[in-house]
Amino acid sequence: MILRERGGAYGSGVEGSGTEGNGVEVFMLRRSSTMEFAPRMMVFPGGGVDQRDADLSLPWAGPSPAEWGRLLIADEATARELVVAAVREVFEECGVLLAGPDVDSVVGDVSGPAWQAERESLLSHELSLAQMLIGRGLVLRSDLLRVRGHWITPEFEPKRYDTRIFAALLPPGQIADDKTSEADHADWTDPARLLEDYASGAAQMLPPTVVCVEQVAAAASAAEFLATEVHMEPITPVLTQADGAVVMRCTLPWSGHLPLSGV
C-alpha cells in the first residue's frame, strides 16, 4: 500500500477523484480482465518473490533482515526476499522507489526515461533490483516500510498465495503512475468512496484488500495508519453457511472493531 495525505502533500501522482473523506489516499490498480488471477479486482501494487531478491549484495538500510524476520514471523532469508520483493514490485508496477543515497535520504523524481528503461529491464528480468541500486549508488530503505498483514489464500482456491502486505508513504517528489501492463486503471483512491463502490457492486476486491482499505479509511492520517501496531498471525478466509447462503468469513487475530464489509 502506497499512501499519501489528501492532495498529495508528500508528493504528486496520477490525479485522483477529488472526493471527500479522511486525509489519506491509497494508490490502487484495477487488474485487467485478461489476468488469470483476480481479473477486474481493485488491488495494491505487488507481486511474487523473484529468486534474485535473495541477492546478498543488495545495498540495505534500516532494520536488518533478521529484525524483519521477527516482525514477519519468518526466517531471515525469507524476510529479506519479502522486503526486497515489495520494494521491487512497487517500483515495477507504479514507479515508486523506496531507496536513497543513504539511510537519511530518499531519491526524488524517478519518472525520467533512464529510470523507465531500468524499470522495464526489471520487468523483463534483464536486471535485478540489487544491480540497479548498486549501479545508481542507492540503498534499499527498509525503514520506510511497515508491515500490515499476512494472508493466505483459501484452501478451495486452485491457485494459492502466502502473502505479506506492507505499507509506505509516497516519498517526496515521486510520482505514482499507471504504466503497468497488468492493470487497465491506476489512480489515487479515497478509501471511503471505494468501500461505498464495493458495497454497491461497482468495485470488486478480495477479502485482504477490503480489510486493509477499511483500516486506511478508519485512520485520521497516513502517519496514524503507519504507526498502528499489527498482529502478524496469518489469516485464511474460509467458506461457511450463514442464513442459508455460502459466505466467506475471516477470523482476525486482533481485537479490533473494523467491519468486514461484504466479507
Describe this structure in words.
With 263 residues, the chain is α/β, with parallel strands linked by helices. It has a single domain (2-249), classed as Nucleoside Triphosphate Pyrophosphohydrolase (Alpha-Beta Complex). The protein is 28% helix and 22% strand. The chain is built from seven helices and 13 strands. The protein has helices at residues 65-72, 76-94, 113-123, 129-136, 191-200, 207-218, 222-227; strands at residues 2-5, 12-13, 24-31, 42-43, 60-61, 99-100, 139-141, 146-152, 162-169, 175-176, 183-189, 238-242, 245-249. The strands form four sheets. Strands 1, 3, 4, 8, 9 and 11 form a six-stranded mixed beta sheet that branches. α1 (65-72) crosses α2 (76-94) and α5 packs across α6 (207-218). The longest helix has 19 residues, at 76-94. It is globular and about 60 Å long. It starts with a strand and ends in a 14-residue tail after the last strand. Mean pLDDT is 88; it is low at 9-21 and 255-263.
What is the number of E strands? 13
**pLDDT averaged over residues:** 88
- Please work out how many helical segments DSSP would assign: 7
| Count of domains | 1
Please give the CATH architecture.
Alpha-Beta Complex
Shape call: globular
Instruction: Please identify the structural class as seen in this structure.
Output: alpha/beta
Helical percent range?
25-40%
Which regions contain 5 or more consecutive residues with pLDDT less than 50?
A: 9-21, 255-263
* CATH-level-4 superfamily name: Nucleoside Triphosphate Pyrophosphohydrolase
CATH C-level class is Alpha Beta
CATH topology: Nucleoside Triphosphate Pyrophosphohydrolase
Instruction: Give helix and strand order, one letter per element, not per position.
Output: EEEEEHHEHHEEEEEHHHEE
The fraction of residues assigned to DSSP E strands is 15-25%
The radius of gyration is 18 Å
Q: Characterize the main sheet.
A: 6 strands, mixed
Distance between the termini: 20 Å
